Known about the structure:
This protein is an all-alpha fold. The protein contains 14 helices and no strands.
Amino acid sequence: MHLWESVVLGALEGLTEFLPVSSTGHLTIAEKLMGYSIDDPDVTAFTAIIQVGAVLATVIYLRADIVRLVSAFFRGLRTPGQRRTNDFRFAVAVLAGSIPIGIVGLAFKDQIETTLRSLWFVGVALILFSGVMWWADRVGTQRRHEGDITLRDTVTIGIAQCLALIPGVSRSGATMSTGLLLGIDRVAVTKLSFFLAIPALAGATVLQTVSEYDNIADGVGWGPTLTATAVSFVVGYLAVSWLLKFIAHHGLGVFIKYRVALGTVVLILVGTGALAPT
């Protein structure tokens, strides 16, 4: 992989990881346009690994909240009385909500890295899931806030997060839409989406690094992979900051329109043979 390609893909990952537009879908499309075989093991591993840059950006941006929640969690483990605090319950809820995607991701790893990488799936998912996002944005009451989020809420949102294993759906799109349908306000569910992303994406990075180390070394290369990861960190930090400010005053409409337009273009290119699906 050329240096400029790794920079472009890293920037694309950082920009789209937390926006409800599907970072994996965007990377898959970009990698195909660059001439890569998008279901090769080194390419799928590269796509998963560079997400850790955005994860680190999230950890740093939300460091005060993370320290508060981790401290509350361990206080609750030591002192039963501390388990009644909102911070302890929220920390437990985030941990529980992170479990479903790990189980489903491991169970369907082969299908996720091969069949679902087809641009047919990406284009269709971009368009179809936009309908879910539109409905959630339309009917969500937003009457509930961060302190109202329960274990049941996060497990439900965590299950919905599994849909993001289909490129084109969007992890943040799935979690934010589900949260809105549960009546949670946009800012609270967006922050929850960030928290749920940390264990999910970190776990995927560790798994792919260990299992595909040699394929990366012999394929796209570790130099470009680390470069893309660093770029995704910088761009991801800026994207997280912007999204929290944007979502406080705007709905998902602009993202929905963009997803439909991109999905339509992808399906036209694949359908006319201008772009191979894999």
